[in-house]
């Protein structure tokens, strides 16, 4: 043992100065083992509110954090997520083993064609002709041919399906586009309006 090195730093291989500070803290506290302090621990009352909101309202971590902050309790989404994990309430199935939900299905109510148009974008992978590796296997000839085509043409990857659905008639217009940028979406919406007009829906609200 080197001179000035105590048993703590020899045993745990830590910096001698840090070990000395730990030993002085131990002696001042009158304990034999270091005490881990957490001065910023979440108050018990806040933990109780988090548990109550999760069990009774079945809210997500972000919703619980929002509600608490609205009530003057400063807490982050990440802290709420950590507390839910500690409470064993981080998974929805832990609250409702029978898959019950607090979300109620809503009915779309429209008075006329064009009253409500739903616009959505779906990102999907490009599938080569004849199917990809999921259908034929990763080591299949089709998968190798698709990989060669991807390197040669650079056309593999993802495509974005932009869709517009009229809530009253359920008529739908869809285009496969290369991205979901604002300019692409706006241009798609103009074409969708023209398509709906050609099919009798001349006024979109």
From TrEMBL:
Gene3D superfamilies with a match to the protein in the record: Ribonuclease H-like superfamily/Ribonuclease H (3.30.420.10)
Task: List all membrane-crossing ranges.
Answer: none
Q: Where is the composition biased (Basic and acidic residues)?
A: 8-30
Which segments carry the region annotation Disordered? 1-40, 128-151
Superkingdom: Bacteria
Q: Which InterPro entries match?
A: RNaseH-like_sf (IPR012337), RNaseH_sf (IPR036397)
Stated name of the protein: Transposase
Source species, please? Amycolatopsis ultiminotia
């Amino acid at each position: 043992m080197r001179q000035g090195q105590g048993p703590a730093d020899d045993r745990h291989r830590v910096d001698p100065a840090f070990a000395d500070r730990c030993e002085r803290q131990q002696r001042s506290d009158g304990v034999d083992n270091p005490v881990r302090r957490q001065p910023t621990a979440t108050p018990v009352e806040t933990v109780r509110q988090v548990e109550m909101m999760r069990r009774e309202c079945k809210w997500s971590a972000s919703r619980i954090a929002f509600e608490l902050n609205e009530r003057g309790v400063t807490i982050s989404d990440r802290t709420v997520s950590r507390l839910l994990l500690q409470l064993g309430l981080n998974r929805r199935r832990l609250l409702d083993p029978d898959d019950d939900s607090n979300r109620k299905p809503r009915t779309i109510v429209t008075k006329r064609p064009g009253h409500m148009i739903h616009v959505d974008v779906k990102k999907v992978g490009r599938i080569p002709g004849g199917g990809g590796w999921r259908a034929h296997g990763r080591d299949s000839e089709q998968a190798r041919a698709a990989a060669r085509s991807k390197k040669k043409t650079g056309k593999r990857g993802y495509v974005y399906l932009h869709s517009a659905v009229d809530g009253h008639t359920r008529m739908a217009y869809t285009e496969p586009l290369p991205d979901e940028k604002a300019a692409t979406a706006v241009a798609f919406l103009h074409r969708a309006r023209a398509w709906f007009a050609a099919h009798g829906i001349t006024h979109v609200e």
